[in-house]
Amino acid sequence: MPDKANAPLANLEEWEDFLKVRYPENGQPGAPGFQATDPNKKQEQFRNYETDARPSVREFYRLNHRHQTYDFVQAKRKEFLSLSRRQMSIWEALDYLNTLVDESDPDTDLSQLDHLLQTAEQIRRDGHPRWFILTGLIHDLGKILCLYGEPQWAVVGDTFPVGCAYSEKIVFHQFFADNPDSRVPRFQSRTGAYSEGCGLDHVCLSWGHDEYLYNVVKDYLPQEALYMVRYHSFYPAHREGEYQHLMSAEDKKMFAWVRAFNPYDLYTKSHERPDVEKLRPFYDELIRQYFPATLRW
Ligand SMILES: [Fe+2]
Fold first, then answer.
1. Which of 139, 195, 199, 286 has its CB surrounded by the most CB atoms within 10 Å?
2. Ligand 1 center from residue 183 Cα (angstroms)
3. In this structure, what are the phi and psi dihedrals at residue 295, rounded to the nearest 5 degrees?
4. Least confident of 37-41, 51-55, 59-63, 124-128
């Protein structure tokens, strides 16, 4: 049984469903060059999403914003980024993630692997490069953090920089009032613990599945793919255009790829079950092209 205090969501998809409400598919596409046309209007809509959110989603964000402090992120990096928990192939990791079942969601008769294959297959149908397809397949493998017993609010959720001012455009911004960092002046200036244009590689984002997986795969995939993996939950930047002042010129250029990936992340899940056995040879070869037989997790 999930511990209610650490697991307010019935399942991780509840967070993603909320993202889809905020960023509807036929609204503004997450295409390269996307800019919100009327920032004030958006702000108002944001507040409405908050009012209309399910209590479980609201509680999830309350915990996330309360507990994701600068020190918490440092501690989690130390705890997980030595990658000394397991040695697994990509398939073994996919099978392991698949043991995460959403019993309580009547909508979800599909597994985590089914969802990842749907994402990858849509990218493949659209004629993108092989590494892009592979990124679709693996991008959520970091969610195995849940299986290590990590609370939901430290695995999923929109990510944001810790150690500097919180953007007003982060959803449920008001919950940051209870974050101890909000009372630390050096963490509340515009650049905080960082410097203008320092580059996101030097910026600590709130801890979750993106950063964990990035560290697992960083030696094996092209830069574009690594940006997609590392920043796909960084909605304040890739959908809201915030935190430009911390980005390097390279970050700004590479975020076009993060935005190109976002529609596949958000909108490709369907009820159609992929034929895993039929697809397996293609993905076996694709995985072999980029990854060693086992990786450290
Ligand atoms: Fe994700």
1. 139
2. 30
3. -125, 155
4. 37-41
